[in-house]
Automatic annotation (TrEMBL):
Membrane-spanning residues: none
Tagged with keyword Hydrolase: yes
Pfam families cross-referenced by the UniProt entry: Abhydrolase_6
Keywords: Hydrolase
Molecular function (Gene Ontology), one example: hydrolase activity
Entry superkingdom: Bacteria
Region: Disordered, residue numbers: 1-25
Protein name (database record): Alpha/beta hydrolase
Domain AB hydrolase-1: 64-272
One GO term describing the cellular component: membrane
Length: 333
């Protein structure tokens, strides 16, 4: 079993990415849209579909990102940029999230894990590092429990704490964590909830509450890293330590000054933790120092394009929005 002691990590901010030129073309044959090294595609299983945004990177380990309940994958933008320096990153928008259409029947965590597995299969990914946040950590855990061939798992702010398994408790804890979140995260999450809509969130929420991650994590064979912010009320330190004790091979790390969405403001530090967890000491050494984009107007325009694409179901616009955000940082250098 893993060690229950939780380590500490020092927070930092994101770094500059490589140069990109904004252009896009639709490839209708396989429902794929590409803009430079950013590809957006759909993966379907029956009436269920997911949208996958891929940032093509150098030859290396692939990373699969799974977001929390009701949230679009665009809040992973900073972490994805850091991980993209060492390999390709595949951010999944699950059914009903980020403007992805869904069938009326509610899906449980197993259903979400099934479509996430379909993404891995359809993209031909060979043992990717699976990273999940909040409810996405539940999906990642279920996926790894079903697929013992997966060898590396990262759970960021995993829920639901067994000592607070009621909706009012979780809402109060989320409100407390939100006090320590950057404004940009609150805006992105708010827009995501609006796109998802209360009906789908209320259908999914009971399934998330009922999923007992503590009963499934013992079936995970992958090396498991649990990351939490020290202000994360939804994933208290004691809860993270309990999960580490239950997983066969695991450890937990706490990031100072971070809250539930630790991978946003502290993306650079979380990326280093993920790479070290995967044995990538050399990749960590090659990470560039973090820097702040000097073209905020272009970055905001990119975010607006990305969100508008999700609302309209325009995958080309989603891709162009991501490239524009990256280009805003490139110009800083």
């Amino acid at each position: 079993m893993g060690s229950g002691a939780i380590g500490k990590a020092t927070p930092s901010r994101r770094h500059a990415e490589g140069d990109e030129h904004v252009s896009a073309q639709a490839v209708a044959a396989d429902e794929k849209v590409q803009s430079e090294n950013v590809t957006v595609r759909r993966v379907r299983r029956g009436t269920t579909q997911a949208r996958v945004t891929t940032l093509k990177g150098p030859a290396g380990r692939d990373f699969v990102l799974l977001a929390g309940i009701g949230v679009a994958s665009n809040y992973y933008v900073r972490l994805a940029a850091d991980l993209n320096t060492t390999g390709s990153v595949h951010a999944i928008d699950l059914p009903g999230f980020g403007g992805v259409r869904h069938r009326d029947r509610a899906l449980d965590i197993g259903d979400f894990a099934e479509i996430a597995g379909a993404v891995i299969d359809d993209l031909g990914l060979d043992d990717p590092v699976v990273i999940g946040h909040s409810m996405g950590a539940q999906v990642a855990t279920e996926l790894a429990a079903r697929r013992p061939e997966l060898t590396s798992l990262v759970l960021i702010g995993p829920v639901i704490d067994a000592d607070a398994r009621t909706i009012p408790q979780q809402i109060l804890r989320l409100a407390h964590s939100a006090l320590y979140e950057p404004g940009a995260v609150r805006v992105l999450v708010g827009m995501s909830y609006a796109m998802c809509g209360p009906r789908w969130i209320l259908k999914t929420l009971p399934r998330m509450m009922r999923y007992r991650i503590e009963e499934r994590i013992g079936a995970v064979q992958a090396d498991t890293l649990i990351v939490r912010g020290d202000h994360d009320a939804n994933c208290p330190r004691e809860w993270a330590e309990r999960l580490v004790e239950l997983v066969p091979r695991g450890r937990a790390v706490e990031v100072d000054g971070a809250a539930h969405s630790v991978m946003y403001r502290h993306a650079h530090e979380v990326a280093k933790l993920c790479l070290l967890h995967d044995g990538g000491e050399e990749a960590v050494r090659e990470l560039e120092p973090p820097s702040k984009p000097r073209h905020p107007a272009m970055r905001v325009r990119g975010v607006a394009m990305n969100v508008a694409g999700m609302v309209r179901g325009d995958d080309a616009l989603i891709a162009r929005g991501i490239v524009t955000q990256r280009h805003a940082t490139d110009m800083a250098d």
